[in-house]
Amino acid sequence: MRRKLPIGGSLAAVAAIASALASAPAASGSEYSESLARNVEREIVYVDPKATPRVSTTEAGAIRLQITRKDIGRIKVAVVPERRAEREGGASGLAAAVARDLELRGTLLVVAGSSIHAITSHPASDSTVAAVREAFERHEGDRGDQIRAAVDGIAAVDPGPSADAGGSTGGGSSGGLPGGDGDDFFDEINDAVKFTTFIVGIAIALPFIAVFLWILLRFRRARKEQDEDWDFAQEQLRAELIELGDEIRALDVDTSMPGANALGLADYEAAIAQYDRANLALDRAEETPRLRVAEARAALKEGKRRMSDAKVRLGVTPIP
Questions:
Q1: How many other C-beta atoms are found inside a 10 Å radius of the C-beta of residue 76?
Q2: Distance between CA atoms of 197 and 156, rounded to whole angstroms?
Q3: What digits encode the pLDDT tens for the residues 177-220?
Q4: Which residues contact 248 (CB under 8 A, 6 or more apart)?
Q5: Which of 74, 132, 147 is nearest to 107 (CA)?
Q6: Of 38, 108, 236, 256, which has the highest C-beta tally within 10 A?
């Protein structure tokens, strides 16, 4: 569904559109849209250096942290040059292509100069439209504040993952041996032979059935223990994820200070990106537990390392 949203004032030409991903037109991805999808997946908030109005590195970090606090894993933001978006079919066409490459869950907000497009994986597009429109009208003149307000509004109306859009049979037959009016004596012999054969067959098959059942029970027991191990590992990683999130929030004020160390800010943003990567891997752990748990563990390790470096460079902790 599409709605043109006049924003008013100097942004009268801005159109903010929201559409449900399930009903969005198919978009053939270009090299640019695929690259943009990778950047957005990795960074949560991706800002093209050539995009105008400009969104600074500090503002992008603040927006990223806000998403982590408000609706983690459910909001992605891409800020790109308007001319670049026009070559990709406009903000709407670019958003549709990126959303499909991302396998979007939640809302993707594409901001391209005077064109704004939000695409959702859930049916609450009307509420998303209203939230984006109200945010851009209320904070006209400050692109960073506009996007932060839009994130607040989108998070407030997001219905959650539960709202995301993701023959004849034939019966068997049985039959018996054809009967006849033959001699009863031979019929009795035939029945006795069949019964004896049946008993011998069972006697031969029993050891194999017993071995099969034993193997099956061992397999199920091992599978259950393995599932419990993965559950325990995920619980540990989620606890570590919460600790990293607390460290990120605690460093928020230091990163917003004037003259903050540029390398420290880069480490801080990298830690946030690794936080989101670990959270996404744990959300998908049911699909491939071994792979996703390993990915989450690696992301958390890297996130902790970058956070430690950020604290040193920003002067929060002394140089070791």
A1: 25
A2: 72
A3: 334 444 455 556 666 667 777 787 787 888 888 888 888 877 77
A4: 65, 68, 268, 271, 272, 275, 307
A5: 74
A6: 108
Beta bridge partners of 187: none
Are 159 and 71 in contact by the 8 Å Cβ rule? The answer is no
- Sign of the torsion formed by the C-alpha atoms of 241, 149, 42 and 18: positive
Read out DSSP for 279-308?
HHHHHTTTTSHHHHHHHHHHHHHHHHHHHH
- DSSP-assigned letter for residue 183: -
Q: Is 135 helix (H, G, I), strand (E, B) or coil?
A: helix
DSSP 8-state secondary structure symbol assigned to residue 217: H
Task: List, in sequence order, every beta strand (DSSP E) within 69-185.
Answer: 75-79, 107-112, 115-120
The type of residue at 278 is A
Task: Determine the residue type at 265.
Answer: L
Pairing of strands 45-47, 75-79: parallel
Any idea which residue has 């066409």 for tokens? 93
Long-range contacts of 35-38 (CB under 8 A, 24+ apart): 36/78, 36/80, 36/94, 36/98, 37/97, 37/98, 37/101, 37/102, 38/101
Q: Which among 223, 215, 233 has a CA at the least distance from the CA of 297?
A: 233
